[in-house]
């Protein structure tokens, strides 16, 4: 293969990589609270959040720290914004209520890998598609550690990657923004249901 053809092929590969865009789209499993913030109770309590996101083995420490910070930060924001509590803490300290928050992401890794491989092999012409379900389980406990009740909430998320999809990216939220919104909303609907069921 001549030098000119090699340079031309290299240019095509570089341009393909630069022009490939990735978009994250939320599903519609969650119904937002009818009212937010929630109605403030006559007597507010303190709450301690114990947040444990699912971290896959082999995840680099800096990446694991970012995931934990994201999930923990959105939980603290939602619980504070709800106006249900006079104090929200993410430290282990005496509180009227304790919320054990566990998050996980369930996806078909094999299918996602195959889809990504085909997309890469076709230089982005054939789109890559992945789907996952983000689940949050929250167990509420009293100050003595006795369980008050538990709530599970989920949201689906889809990811598209394709050549020239980058043109649509300015009109979509950044992927980090989408994930922040998902974790925030999972906490919001959890709090709404917990209030309705009399857990809080």
Descriptive report:
This protein has 200 residues and is an alpha/beta fold. The chain has a single domain, classed as 2-Layer Sandwich (Double Stranded RNA Binding Domain). It contains 4 helices and 6 strands; from the N terminus they run H-E-E-H-E-E-H-E-E-H. The chain has a 6-stranded mixed β-sheet with strand order 1-6-5-4-2-3. The longest helix has 22 residues, at 175-196. 23% of the residues are buried. Mean pLDDT is 80; it is low at 6-20 and 165-173.
Task: Please give a handful of descriptors for the protein shown.
200 residues; alpha/beta; Double Stranded RNA Binding Domain; 6-stranded mixed sheet; 4 helices; globular
* Spatial arrangement of strands, main beta sheet: 1-6-5-4-2-3
CATH class (first level) name = Alpha Beta
Residues in β-strands, percent: 25-35%
Count of domain modules = 1
Order of helices and strands: HEEHEEHEEH
Give the CA-based shape. globular
Q: Assign the CATH superfamily.
A: Lipoprotein like domain
* Helical proportion, percent range: 25-40%
CATH topology: Double Stranded RNA Binding Domain
Task: Output the structural class.
Answer: alpha/beta
Query: Using DSSP, what is the number of strands?
Result: 6
Largest pleated sheet: 6 strands, mixed
* Cα distance spanning the termini: 71 Å
- Per DSSP, the total helix count is 4
List low-confidence stretches.
Answer: 6-20, 165-173
How much is the average pLDDT? 80
Radius of gyration: 21 Å
């Amino acid at each position: 293969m001549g030098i000119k053809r090699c340079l031309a092929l290299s240019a095509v590969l570089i341009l393909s990589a630069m022009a490939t865009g990735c978009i994250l789209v939320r599903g519609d499993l969650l119904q937002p609270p009818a009212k937010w913030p929630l109605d403030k109770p006559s007597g507010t309590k303190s709450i301690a959040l114990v947040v444990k996101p699912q971290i896959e083995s082999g995840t680099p420490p800096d990446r694991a720290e970012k995931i934990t910070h994201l999930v923990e930060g959105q939980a603290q924001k939602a619980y504070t914004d709800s106006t249900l509590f006079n104090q929200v803490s993410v430290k282990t300290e005496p509180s009227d209520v304790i919320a054990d928050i566990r998050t996980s992401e369930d996806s078909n890794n094999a299918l996602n890998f195959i889809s990504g491989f085909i997309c890469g092999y076709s230089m982005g012409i054939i789109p890559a598609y992945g789907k996952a379900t983000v689940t949050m389980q929250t167990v509420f406990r009293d100050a003595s550690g006795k369980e008050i009740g538990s709530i599970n909430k989920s949201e689906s998320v889809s990811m598209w990657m394709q050549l020239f999809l980058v043109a649509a990216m300015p009109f979509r939220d950044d992927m980090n923004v989408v994930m922040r919104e998902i974790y925030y909303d999972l906490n919001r609907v959890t709090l709404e249901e917990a209030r309705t069921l009399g857990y809080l």
